[in-house]
Design brief:
The protein is mainly α and 190 residues long. Among the domains are: 56 residues, no CATH class; 67 residues, no CATH class. Keywords: Membrane, Transmembrane, Transmembrane helix.
Length: 190
């Protein structure tokens, strides 16, 4: 009888160990399934961009789009994280949505700008200078219908490969021809 006691105790210990390991694996798998389901339910990027822009003050909004236009994604994420207090992943997602779906600054409680107000570009009291160069070629656009935010949208369009839309936006906000706008946009692909 004593000779069977040791093997039975070992067998019980192995069974308990297997049960604990299988329970742990099942919990992890359930957590991964929940995480994957939450990832599938993520918001539409355009809606996320609108919600994210609403959380920023005018100065934060301007700085964020300036950083996006300069290609400083990490600095933009850091700025958004500090401004809103959201987590790193949420800040990354928000900045990505804001970069791909640029949002104008709106005062809290103000109605969102409608498409009809977008027909005529706003004229600013200053002239904005945008300069692009590659090698020996330099192009400059100077206009009182451009600012950091609009130029940032144009650069974002150009970097995303939508050269035509970027050129159209540039001609709408300046007094240059489509040919000149396309030449300027070609220099922005760096």
């Amino acid at each position: 009888m004593d000779s069977l006691l040791v093997p039975v105790m070992i067998l019980i210990a192995v069974i308990v160990g297997v049960l604990l390991i299988s329970r742990s694996v099942a919990r992890r798998a359930a957590g991964h399934r929940e995480h994957a389901a939450a990832a599938k339910v993520r918001k539409d990027p355009a809606e996320l961009a609108r919600e994210s822009a609403a959380k920023l003050s005018e100065e934060q909004h301007r700085k964020l789009y300036s950083l996006i236009a300069q290609g400083q994604a990490m600095a933009a994420i850091k700025l958004y994280l500090e401004a809103t207090g959201e987590g790193l992943r949420a800040s990354r997602d928000a900045v990505g949505a804001l970069a791909s779906h640029p949002q104008p600054f709106t005062l809290p409680g103000a109605a969102a700008p409608d498409a009809a107000s977008d027909d005529e570009p706003e004229h600013f009291t200053y002239r904005y200078r945008a300069i692009a160069s590659k090698g020996d070629v330099t192009r400059e656009v100077s206009s009182n219908m451009l600012n950091d935010e609009i130029y940032g949208r144009i650069r974002t369009l150009a970097k995303s490969g939508d050269v035509e839309a970027a050129a159209v936006a540039l001609t709408r906000h300046s007094d240059i021809s489509m040919k000149q706008a396309l030449e300027f946009i070609e220099l922005l692909d760096d």
